[in-house]
Amino acid sequence: MLKRLFGKVEETKEGEESIEEVRAQRDELSTLVAGISDAILAVDREGAPLFYNGQFAVLVGPERMNQGRSKLLEMIRDPDIVNAFRFTIEEGRIYQLKAVPILQKDKKKFYSLSVSPLRRPDRSVYGAVGMFHDVTELKLAEQMRIDFVANVSHELRTPLTAIKGYTDTLIADEKLGRPLETSFLEVISRNVDRLMLLIRDLLDLSTMDSSIDHLVKEKISTEELTTRIVSQMQQTFEGKQQSVTTTFNTGFVQADLKRLEQVLVNLLDNASKYSPAGGSIHVVWEADEEGEILLRIEDTGPGIPAEHHDRLFERFYRVDKGRQRETGGTGLGLAIVKHIMQRHGGAVWVQSDMGRGSRFTCQFPNDVTG
């Protein structure tokens, strides 16, 4: 079947299918393969393409496909992929790769590859066909899990190390009859608080991940809620001489009150931490053209480099690891905001330019607005 597809139809024996039937089957198979979501490439023994589908053309890019019957090396420059095809052609056996990185338009994607030999009726190998399956999301999810475990371990180890060290010192001092160092107790208390915040946020994310936390949506006054949260955090803003202004172009939003409070607190706290002393924060509630409610929180901080925007809402992801740890953050605030917005059927994103502050926007879809 594959030989017909790649135009390598052998001479038929007397009584076998007619030429028209062979052509019809070839056309049917070509249509079928072209519709497969995986990228497919078949090459001859010299590495020149016999066949490829549209997905493969997208994978390697139009500039390489314009080279016509170029060699495989000129189309795909990854040595692992080239060696996979060469092995299959020379050994006549299937060769598989789990996750091959391929750069596409300045963005790396990962593909699993399975290469099978193409044989003539006499079993001789005249080429190989490879199927590229996009596993980028699986690869990223796997890496996120690895990073998550590593980050949790690190975040727990740091305060625990401090608690252990200062506790041992206090015990030793007590045995030697030295006076109690209250500053040591303050350090221990501060690190215990940090652990409690971290565990609280981890449990919160776990609850949302398991979907056992059911949203209770109600009609909420945007002005009443925002004014109350800003008032509760006033000491935080006054500590850095920061001003907070509000604009209410829409009066109500349909949401879970507890979770919406978390969104506001996390975003306002984040804006305060990264805005300089004497900076300003602006909270805006408005409706867009589709009737969706938007919550915008703008700050006058240093801004966030564009390369960090896509990963900013990942768990424990930090633009400046040392600085955020010094400010007392757990690295989970924005991840919690993202989860809450997703649970509401909405979204959250950031817009920021270096030196011009940041704007975080939460969008509540119109089917949950009031």
Describe this structure in words.
The chain folds into three domains: 133 residues, 2-Layer Sandwich (Beta-Lactamase); 78 residues, Signal transduction histidine kinase, dimerisation/phosphotransfer (DHp) domain (Helix Hairpins); 155 residues, Heat Shock Protein 90. It is 45% helix and 24% strand. It is built from 13 helices and twelve strands. The strands form three sheets. The chain has a five-stranded antiparallel sheet with strand order 2-1-5-4-3, with helices on both faces. Helix 7 packs antiparallel against helix 8, helix 9 crosses helix 11 and helix 11 runs antiparallel to helix 13. The chain starts with a helix and ends in a 6-residue tail after the last strand. The N terminus is likely disordered.
**SS content category:** alpha+beta
Task: Count the DSSP helices.
Answer: 13
Share of helix, binned: 40-55%
Number of domains as seen in the coordinates: 3
Helices and strands, in order, run as: HHEEHHHHEEEHHEHHEEHEEHHEE
* CATH structural architecture of the largest domain: 2-Layer Sandwich
Strand content: 15-25%
Keywords, separated by commas or semicolons:
370 residues, alpha+beta, Beta-Lactamase, Helix Hairpins, Heat Shock Protein 90, 12 strands, 45% helix
A few lines on this structure:
This protein has helices at about 1-5, 20-35, 55-60, 60-65, 70-75, 80-90, 135-175, 180-210, 220-230, 235-240, 255-275, 320-325, 335-345, and strands at about 40-45, 50, 95-105, 105-120, 125-135, 215-220, 245-250, 250-255, 280-285, 295-300, 345-350, 360-365. It is of the alpha+beta class and about 375 residues long.
